[in-house]
Amino acid sequence: MLKPFLTICFLLLIFSYSLQDLSLIYPSYFPKPVYDFKKNPLKSSMVQLGRKLFYDPVLSRDNTISCSSCHLSNQAFSHVGNHLSKGIENGIGDRNSPAIFNLAWQKTFMWDGSVVNIDVQALAPINHPAEMGEDINAVVRKLNKSKEYKTLFYKSFGDSMATSERLMKALSQFQLTIVSANSKYDKVKQGRAKFSQSEKNGYQLFKRNCSSCHQEPLFSTYEFANNGLSYDPELKDYGKWNKTFEPADKMMFKIPSLRNLEYTYPYMHDGRFKTLYDVIDHYEKGIERNPNLAKQLEKPIVFNVKEKEDLLAFLAALNDSVLVSNVEYQKVK
């Protein structure tokens, strides 16, 4: 009886290995990812399929807009200088394009958290009339006409048929591998560098004033908060409330990471602030009081000139130049 049992165990190990030949690489001081890789094991061929799809405008109705159009690798997968996302036929989206990195540690997606599974997140921009303006079934039909994609799907799934589920999982696999953990802050954590005195001072200011919402080492809780932004009557965006209509969700937006701020301006869900000085000024004198305002912001956060410079020095230590230059995340030429 032992021999058949061992044979089954051996076959299961082979099957497991065939499903996953990659591991997500991240520092020991990072928390455990919240994404369940058992349901979508990382596989190099699928990551490469997702990478090609990410850069392919075939996902849009007129074949002009790809995921990378609004999420550029050399901009920490954001869209620098653009207040709102841009789409087909000069269409303008509803919000600022969020930076894409460290997604494996996030439970919800989009500024309002309306997507709760990254494996289906891409449906939102694909279906959005002003972004990609396409039907997912039409995308699948286009992919199934491509000899190149037939080969790539075969390598990833064992047969050449493209489906919406496979498309979504491949896209999520590529995005899940985008990990930002090579800033100066990370080198300090690993004992490979030291903060300057200004960065040290800024670090202390950060811990006293910012860390409750922007927790280390990801520099966000990825929860939702009302940070006192004024309502824009033109955009008519109340954050989570737009989806739930719950009073407690009014002006509640997902808390972004403070990593890579150098590459991801303008800031906030609508890109209203061009610089980090504008952001700091908001917390000092721009907070709009309302019933849902985060308790931490009931009093203005005031810094003198030297403190502002020190805080900005520390925030600069969160920029990851390795991420934005990594050829593994760029379009295959």
Annotation keywords:
single chain; 333 residues; mainly alpha; Cytochrome Bc1 Complex, Chain D, domain 2; 2 domains; two-stranded antiparallel ribbon; periplasm; heme binding; metal-binding
Tell me what you see in this structure.
Residues 197-319 form the Cytochrome c domain. Keywords: Heme, Iron, Metal-binding, Oxidoreductase, Periplasm, Peroxidase, Signal. Its main location: periplasm. This protein is mainly α and 333 residues long. It has two domains: 41-180 and 323-329, Cytochrome c-like domain (Cytochrome Bc1 Complex, Chain D, domain 2, Orthogonal Bundle); 184-321, Cytochrome Bc1 Complex, Chain D, domain 2. It contains 13 helices and two strands; from the N terminus they run αααααααααβαβααα. The protein has helices at 2-19, 44-54, 118-121, 123-127, 136-144, 147-157, 164-176, 184-189, 197-209, 241-244, 276-286, 305-316, 321-325, and strands spanning 224-225, 253-254. The protein has a two-stranded antiparallel sheet with strand order 1-2.
Question: How do the strands and helices of this protein lay out in sequence?
Answer:
Layout: H1 2-19, H2 44-54, H3 118-121, H4 123-127, H5 136-144, H6 147-157, H7 164-176, H8 184-189, H9 197-209, E1 224-225, H10 241-244, E2 253-254, H11 276-286, H12 305-316, H13 321-325
Helix pairs in contact: 2-6, 2-7, 9-12
Domain Cytochrome c: 197-319
InterPro entries: Cyt_c-like_dom, Cyt_c-like_dom_sf, Cytochrome_c_Peroxidase/MauG, Di-haem_cyt_c_peroxidsae, MauG/Cytc_peroxidase
Keywords: Heme, Iron, Metal-binding, Oxidoreductase, Periplasm, Peroxidase, Signal
